[in-house]
Amino acid sequence: MKSFNLSQIVDFPTRITNNMVTLIDCIFVDTVLVKKVISYPHINGLSDLDAQIVILDSFMIKCHKNISKKRVHSINNQTLNNFLLMLQEENWDSVYNTNNINEMFNNFQNTLIRNFDNSFRVITTGKRRKSAIWIANGIKILRNRKRELYLLRRNINNPQVINFYNKYCSILKKVIIEAKKMHIKNQIHNSTNTIKSTWEIIKDFMGSSHSYSPITKINTDNGSTTIHEEIAKAFNEFFVDIAKNLDNKHADINKAIELLTKTNRVEYMEMKPIPFTENELIHTIFTMKTKKSSGYDGISNMILKHCVKAISKPFTYICNFSLTNGIFPDRCKYALVLPVYKRGKN
User: Fold this and answer.
1) How many CB atoms lie within 10 A of CB 90?
2) DSSP 330
3) Are 24 and 14 in contact (CB under 8 A)?
4) Are residues 87 and 175 in the same domain?
5) Closest of 31, 30, 32, 28 to residue 9, by C-alpha
6) Looking at the predicted structure, is the pLDDT value of residue 267 above 70?
7) Alpha-helical runs (H) found in 242-290
8) Banded model confidence at residue 158, pLDDT cuts 50, 70, 90
9) How confident is the model at residue 284 (pLDDT cuts 50, 70, 90)?
10) Segment among 38-47, 135-144, 305-314 with least mean pLDDT
């Protein structure tokens, strides 16, 4: 090791038991790059193997943390109120001054997205593990006491102390199990959707999470492609034509037509669109579930409920215009498709 300028810097015991001490960890440092090194043990109180702390003088080590980050909008009471004020100052002339439903809705949504982006700035956040709610202050005190007892047990070879420590660990384990059970029961009892809450509890204890990555390549009948437009077109064609590719060999079309012709023919009243009011639209939006998830525009139901009174007038006008003319805006037909493949399938 000396030929590579590497020197051992740990010269103290790293594992201490009741009847022996050993040095089982070796740390080597390049003495050419580092002129001064300080090392000393750190008793963690969890095991008989101590940690080592190494201080390198005038030496920078660049650490790369493998933390998944995501870009989110900063949403709080201040930004929500600012977003509401900006919408209230809009006159929505671009919505009322056109007779094209697509242009009308595009102008409405563009105005909404522009104010949304100006109000809620984008920030980068790292995914942090949530602290366990079931860990009460009493369990924290018991846990700290266990660490003290462990150090006492390690340094004193006393059968009574060892026996007391083992019993203490057994009691603490039972307390933790009961605390987890009580927390889970309260979660399920206070939930409106027990099945969803149960799966959330399972995922939380298993530590599983979903991370969606954008599709960069897809295999089709015509070969592989990396062009985003062709990928979207391939998914669209698959879902549009899926009904045509079903097994319809056993379907009797003539029998179905005959059944329809034999049904009681009743003259139905002509359907006429009845315009609805702003209050009806506001009530309908408030009945939707308050979710933070959003579509391609980034606006969630929570944001929509907060600003519905500021946009109810132009939105009602667009909906009534669409019903009267029988045309649905093309932009409302967009959707985000996130395929999640099952394990073992391509």
Assistant:
1) 17
2) G
3) yes
4) no
5) 28
6) no
7) 253-262, 278-286
8) confident
9) very high
10) 38-47
Range of the domain at 15: 2-56
Report the pLDDT value the prediction gives residue 1, as an integer from 0 to 100.
64
Task: Provide the whole-model pTM.
Answer: 0.51
* Banded pLDDT at 101 (limits 50, 70, 90): very high
308 CB-contact burial (10 Å; exposed 0-12 / middle 13-18 / buried 19+): middle
Query: Is residue 342 included in any domain, yes or no?
Result: no
Same domain, 117 and 233: yes
Contacts of 267 (CB under 8 A, 6+ apart): none
For every residue of 30-95, DSSP letters joined together read ETTT-S-EEEEEE--SSSSB-EEEEEETT----------EEEEE---HHHHHHHHHHHHT---HHH
144/123 same-domain check: no
The domain total for the chain is 3
> In terms of domains, do 200 and 218 share one?
no
Q: Judge whether 341 lies within some domain.
A: no
Q: Which residue has the higher pLDDT, 44 or 186?
A: 186
C-alpha closest to that of 103 among 335, 331, 297? 331
> Is the four-CA dihedral 226, 230, 233, 234 of positive or negative sign?
negative
Of 330, 335, 333, nearest to 100 (Cα)? 330
Q: What is the dihedral of CA 27, 32, 38, 41, to 10 degrees?
A: 0
- Please give the structure tokens belonging to residue 66: 């493998």
Residues 6 and 98 in one domain: no
